Structure formats: structure tokens, C-alpha cells
Amino acid sequence: MWWCLLNRCKSRKVRSLWWEGIPPSVRGWVWQHSIGNQLNITPELYEIFLARYGFHFRGINALSQKLQGKKIRLGASVAPGNPQLEAMTLDILSTFPDLHIFQKEISNIFPSRENCPPAGHERTVLARNLQNIPQVSQGGPYHDSLRNVLGAYATYRPDVGYAPMTSWLAAMLLLYMDAVEAFVVLANILNQPCMLAFALPRPNQVKRYLATFDVFFEENLPGLFAHFKKIGLLPDVYLGDWVLVLLAHVLPLECACRARDVWFRDGEEFAFRAALGRLSLLADSLLTLDKEGAAALLLARSSPAASSSVAAAPFPIPATQEEALFSAIAGVRMVSRRRSWAQVLALQ
């Protein structure tokens, strides 16, 4: 059925079905076929870059062990002198923490294929029932796969390396596909112009996207836009993370997956539309806050590993507000002076 729907994705009926969310049983398949593989990445290529990452990671940990003389804990500095690997390690610690499947108390010395997550039907059942998974005392079964995918990508694209918070994106992919497939999809997602602009980052291109976002921000939420101008809160403070992970760090899992479904349907424009939807949902609170308070709310994560400055912030979008969020997104008008998002972006 979904193969036929993919070929008619522009029809009103199909777009409506897609908006409601893709069934978990076919979600991974739909995501893979929606993004394609323009980079022509093969399983062999993944193995090559995984091996290179493993070699690099072993060297780093050998040095760390020599310096510390003890096992390496996940929250510690596992990569002295390598801030990207440190950021990746800490992000993995805070990725969907309530699921208890991506974190490991003690980091292995180098990437392995042990504790591999289930595949096929078992993966679909797991993705459907993630909230019922108990904590695993020896570490989550998806930890190694997540680290391997992120590490292989950082080796594949050293100019990008590890883009902050993309552990959330890779983790979501791993819930619906195996590591090789997740690597292919992740690489093709991050190769999209908008994603690459924020991941590298490319300042001039980022400025274009921020300026375009401001046009639609003022169009849809003029009061909040004026308030942000008054307190000096610019979109570069919060928007980059939102675009890269599509709010996965503040959404309940199924809601985050539904948002990613629509991203695969609509492309980069939906990331900014979703951002405006979230701002609309939080507008009443944001209008009462100063710059520091508003930034803390917008940067808050659903993770206990969030920084102390925002850890006390309320969980921004509880599961009960999923429909409220999507209603807010649906109410966002992505037309300004008869120009579409793409047309406004082209003028920047």
C-alpha cells in the first residue's frame, strides 16, 4: 500500500494520511525510500568508515587509559583533545534517556558488534513498545550501534564530523532500521542543503535560513516576534538544534517520529514550520520571560543530562499535547506576500 502511496505523495488524500503518521511497521521502509541514496553509499563503504573510526577510537582510548589508569565512564572525557568525540559521547548519554537502550555505564574500549539490536519483525515490535522497556543494568543494546553510526559518519565526512545533537536523529533511525541502513539515511539527510548548512556550519547560508525564518516568524507570530526583538533573543540561539533534530529532544518519541514522517514528505520547509508551531504553543509563556528565561525554555531538553541552567525547565511538550502541537503547526502559514518559503529563501 505505502509503495503506491509514495508514488502519489502529492495527492491530498495521501498527504493527509502522511500527516497523521506512518505506521511503525513500514516507517523505516518509507523513510529510506523517501530520502533515497543519491550519495550511492554501500554497505561496504559503511564497513570501511566504521573500521577507520574503530582504529581512531582505539588510539584515543589507549591514550586516555594511559593517562587515567582506569576504565572510562561514559560521562567522562573519553577523547582528550577531541571535543567532537566528547560531544558525541555526552549526547549519547542524553539521547532518549527514558528508553534506557542507548546509554551504557561503562564505555567499551572500541566499537564492537556485540549487543546488536534486534532486526526485522522484532525491531518493529520493539519500536512499538519502547516505553515498556526496563532499564538494562549493563547498558543499552542500541548503544554500540548508535556510537558506530555516528562515528562512521564523522569519519566519512570529517568536514562535518559530529554535528551536535545528531545522536537523536541517528537513534530514531536505528529504531526502524539496521545500522547500515541508518548510516545511509543519516548521510543523505545531512547532505540536504539546509541540514548541511547548520551541521558544518556554513555561516553565510545559515544567515539566509535565519533571515527567511524571521520573515515567516513575523508573519505568523508578530507579537512574539516583537517581544524577541525587544529582549534581544535571536533565532541563532535556538533554531540550529531544532532544525537538525526536528525537536526530537523535546518531543515524546512517537510525536517526534510523526514530525520526522512529515519532514520526509515536505522537506526542509517543515523543520521551520514545526519550529514556528512550537513557538506558537509556547507563546503565552515566552511573552512573560526575559531573554535568559526565554532562551532557557527554548533550549530545555527532555533529558536529565541537560545543563544545570535549564534542567529545571518544564518538559515543554508533554505527550498529551501532541495534537495541540500539530494543530499549531497546521496553523502556520508558509506564504509571505504571495511568496513561498523557497521563493523568500531565494531572495536572501
From TrEMBL:
Name of this chain's protein: Rab-GAP TBC domain-containing protein
Matching Pfam families: RabGAP-TBC (PF00566)
UniProt cross-references to SMART domains, sorted A to Z: TBC
SUPFAM superfamilies: Ypt/Rab-GAP domain of gyp1p
Cleavable signal peptide: none
InterPro entries, alphabetized: Rab-GAP-TBC_dom, Rab-GAP_TBC_sf, Rab_GAP_TBC_domain
Molecular function GO labels: GTPase activator activity; small GTPase binding
The organism's place on the tree of life at top rank: Eukaryota
Every Rab-GAP TBC domain range: 21-267
